Amino acid sequence: MPANATASALSDPAWMRRLLIATALVFLALFLLLPLVAVFAEALRRGVSAYWAALVEEDALAAIKLTLIVAAIAVPANLVFGMAASWCVAKFDFRGKNLLITLIDLPFSVSPVISGLIYVLLFGLNGLMGPYLKSHGIQIIFAVPGLVLATIFVTFPFVARELIPLMQEQGSEEEEAALVLGASGWQTFWRVTLPNIKWGLLYGVLLCNARAMGEFGAVSVVSGHVRGYTNTMPLHVEILYNEYNFVAAFAVASVLAMLALVTLVAKTALEWRFGAELAASRHK
Amino acid sequence: MVAAASADVAFPTKGSAVTSILKKPSVLPGFGLTLGFTLSYLGILVLLPFGALIVKAGGLGWFGFWNAVLTPRVLAAFQVSFGLSLVAAAINAVFGFIVAWVLVRYQFPGKRLVDALVDLPFALPTAVAGIALSALYAPNGWVGKPLNELFGLKVAFTPLGIAIALTFVGLPFVVRTVQPILQELPPEEEEAAVSLGATRGQTFWQVVFPAVLPALVTGFALSFARGVGEYGSVIFIAGNMPGLTEILPLLIVIKLEQYDYAGAAAVGTSMLLVSFVMLLILNILQHWMRSRHAR
């Protein structure tokens, strides 16, 4: 067989390459890029001053503040959980480990609405603990604690899922050496383990935060939609949109879209710069 | 286990009897503390609420449960959610594969940017995607208007609109599962096929495609599962007509708003059950394909 026939059978002909690249790019432009552009175009439809006015309006500011508060509780909580879970899963061998990993991943495979639903069924007025909570004057559903719980649930696996494979790859030799040389358990963690996992940790926190601030379905179920009190930014977008206040809805949405873009840029930068220090399963 | 963990917190240097039966010995400390914390956190935040779902749904009894689920409205929502998720997953399987192929095999300007953009649906809040798609495909939108005027095609507030929203949220799953497998495919296999006289088409369909197929099925399954549960990006574009464009998660929300907790729990439980069975079937299918390819 002549050499050029082999080469042509190993690579696609130029017309096919062009056709496939064009197909992929048109598809991505239509499905991904266009919605993103539409958010900013709709937000700026009435000019910059209308855009700005929609953002500094009282309820919008309350929504931004609440979103930041919820994320500021949920993300650190899942950060601590993720580190504890990955330490016991990656550094030790014990029975039921695979079951534990499956359970940690569980919130990812559940509809956001069901994630909210289960908390309503537990803490809501007609829920299992509803009468008890009511008699003690504790309100969880339709209040900030419910928003925090639902957000913790949907962002539960992010940090653990990033750290477990990373710590499994790294093994325990360095920690064992530190302990043999007389370091305490906490010293070993702070000075040996943490520096080794810091980029992976940041990567997990980044994704966790993006989801925490952008979650809609789960918080929608537990929120009760009280303007200025239990409305996070995504919920505020919904209310404005349903009131046909499109410019304001897209203005708040554009802030969330910018958060998504910053997350994507930071995530991509981490993958390019510290790819080797993230879990191999992530950056293949 | 939790009791053993708290014993370990008090005496971190001594492994308790329970933990040493459970785990292999190790010089590293903190097993009891971290496992205890992990299990408590998981138990309180995930398992306890799931228990509430099962208790509430179970409280209806066998007949009550099926009475709540087997109503025309719920069954129609099942059809909408599962049917359109399958459609979207199929669209994603085709185009996601092409995107992955193009990103792995070809060089073109802006490739890294395109690669990063694929993750947008993971990062963009679903409500934002929902209103953006709804604005684009509305009868007076950038895409909806030409489609309506040229082809008489209505997208927003029809099942087609739901399929488009579900395609948006599911796309990265297919690309990100197929991409690494394509990347690691040994070039020797293709070279061997070609040197044995196979054409490009034969090489693709008989060497490359079977090797990638299990990953493609995984991506399809993930995209499908995500679609069934999706809420935020769908409700704005769907129109939410009962029986026609009403998805299951929305039906759960409606039942909750009517304080029908047990009904919501029943619909939620049945939805989890059907998803579980479908994913199990896909898993078995995938296992069968893998063992066939290995031979």
From TrEMBL, chain A:
| Principal subcellular localization | membrane
Question: Boundaries of each ABC transmembrane type-1 domain copy?
Answer: 64-265
Drop me one GO molecular function for this one: ABC-type sulfate transporter activity
Membrane topology recorded in Swiss-Prot or TrEMBL: Multi-pass membrane protein
Where are the bilayer-spanning segments? 65-87, 99-125, 137-160, 246-266
Its localization reads:
Cell inner membrane
Q: Which UniProt keywords apply?
A: Cell inner membrane, Cell membrane, Membrane, Sulfate transport, Transmembrane, Transmembrane helix, Transport
Q: Which Gene3D superfamilies match?
A: MetI-like
Pfam families with a match to the protein in the record:
BPD_transp_1
Cellular component GO terms, alphabetical: plasma membrane
The UniProt function text for this chain reads: Part of the ABC transporter complex CysAWTP (TC 3.A.1.6.1) involved in sulfate/thiosulfate import. Probably responsible for the translocation of the substrate across the membrane.
Describe the protein's quaternary organization and the partners it interacts with.
Answer: The complex is composed of two ATP-binding proteins (CysA), two transmembrane proteins (CysT and CysW) and a solute-binding protein (CysP).
Q: Which PANTHER family match?
A: SULFATE TRANSPORT SYSTEM PERMEASE PROTEIN, SULFATE TRANSPORT SYSTEM PERMEASE PROTEIN CYSW
Name this polypeptide is given: Sulfate transport system permease protein CysW
Organism this protein belongs to: Azospirillum griseum
The record lists the lineage as: Bacteria, Pseudomonadati, Pseudomonadota, Alphaproteobacteria, Rhodospirillales
UniProtKB/TrEMBL annotation, chain B:
Question: What is the protein name stated in its UniProt record?
Answer: Sulfate transport system permease protein CysT
**Record function comment:** Part of the ABC transporter complex CysAWTP (TC 3.A.1.6.1) involved in sulfate/thiosulfate import. Probably responsible for the translocation of the substrate across the membrane.
NCBIfam families given in the database record: 3a0106s02, permease_CysT
- What gene name is given for the protein in this entry? cysT
Q: Where in the cell is it found?
A: Cell membrane
Q: Give the family per the record.
A: Belongs to the binding-protein-dependent transport system permease family. CysTW subfamily.
Pfam families reported for this sequence: BPD_transp_1
Q: Which CDD domains match?
A: TM_PBP2 (cd06261)
Question: Lineage from the top down?
Answer: Bacteria, Pseudomonadati, Pseudomonadota, Alphaproteobacteria, Rhodospirillales
Query: Could you tell me which residue ranges the ABC transmembrane type-1 domain spans?
Result: 78-282
Q: What is its main location?
A: membrane
Q: How does it assemble?
A: The complex is composed of two ATP-binding proteins (CysA), two transmembrane proteins (CysT and CysW) and a solute-binding protein (CysP).
Q: What cellular component terms from Gene Ontology apply here?
A: plasma membrane
Q: Determine the domain of life of the protein's source.
A: Bacteria
Topologically, how does it sit relative to the membrane? Multi-pass membrane protein
Keywords for this entry?
A: Membrane, Sulfate transport, Transmembrane, Transmembrane helix, Transport
Q: Which terms does the record give in the GO molecular function aspect?
A: ABC-type sulfate transporter activity
Q: Which residues cross the membrane?
A: 31-55, 75-104, 116-138, 150-175, 204-225, 231-254, 261-285
